[in-house]
Automatic annotation (TrEMBL):
Homology family: Belongs to the uridine kinase family. NRK subfamily.
Keyword Aminoacyl-tRNA synthetase annotated: no
Lineage of the organism: Eukaryota, Metazoa, Chordata, Craniata, Vertebrata
One example of a Gene Ontology biological process annotation: NAD+ metabolic process
Alphabetical keyword list: ATP-binding, Kinase, Magnesium, Metal-binding, Nucleotide-binding, Pyridine nucleotide biosynthesis, Transferase
Pathway annotation from the record: Cofactor biosynthesis; NAD(+) biosynthesis
Name of the protein in question: Nicotinamide riboside kinase 1
GO CC terms, sorted: cytosol
Keyword Cell membrane: no
Amino acid sequence: MRKVIIGIGGTTNGGKTTLSKSLQELLCNSCVISQDNFFKDDSVVPTDINGFKQYDSLDALHMDRMMGDIGSWQENPEHFMTSHGFAVKSTASEPPNVFVLIVEGFLIFNHRHLNSLFNKKYFLQIPYETCKERRSSRVYVPPDPPGYLDGYVWPMYLKNRKAMEEAVNDIVFLDGTQKRETLLSTVLADIQECLWLHRD
Ligand SMILES: Nc1ncnc2c1ncn2[C@@H]1O[C@H](COP(=O)(O)OP(=O)(O)OP(=O)(O)O)[C@@H](O)[C@H]1O
Ligand SMILES: NC(=O)c1ccc[n+]([C@@H]2O[C@H](CO)[C@@H](O)[C@H]2O)c1
């Protein structure tokens, strides 16, 4: 049995969740772990000197719990999938021979250990204007206070991205302003080639 881990990182609102969900629906025996599900409680996230909550940092995330979930999938993908509501496709005569885990999030390539687990890394980048427009129609919990993107989120994106580029190579950069269908077909074809090249 083979296990493949795909990383979908990128700018906030780059389209990571959208792309990951579509890939998961099309890739047999795949499931998604989203970094956004591991944010710490607001009460323990510190505030910077400008009064902005410091959410765009690995310190604001329960990375230990996220790594724990990835470890559970590695130990037993079939059990992980069924206990997290993902369908496993197999027959008695033909058990699944490949499981795919899609890990998506804005800081997945800034975590050294997590980085070492990926078979393939994609980064959905969007320019500032696109990010501002998309993020303004999103409501996070807690919601973005006025000036949050300009005063905190975008400067942190540039900082985290620089650190990522200094530490990580073999990332496939994608233009997140492309159509959803274009992004999906490009990445799907690339993953399928990767699965084919590394078949048993
Ligand atoms: N290719 C695309 N073209 C236009 N809009 C898109 C595209 N992909 C996603 N969107 C829209 O952009 C917004 C952000 O998408 P999504 O939630 O997938 O991004 P994300 O990278 O997961 O964001 P987050 O910063 O919360 O992690 C949503 O409103 C979504 O519908
Ligand atoms: N708890 C959350 O999901 C949460 C709370 C506050 C801010 N965010 C934002 O999520 C983005 C990553 O997807 C980051 O840019 C955070 O600012 C998320």
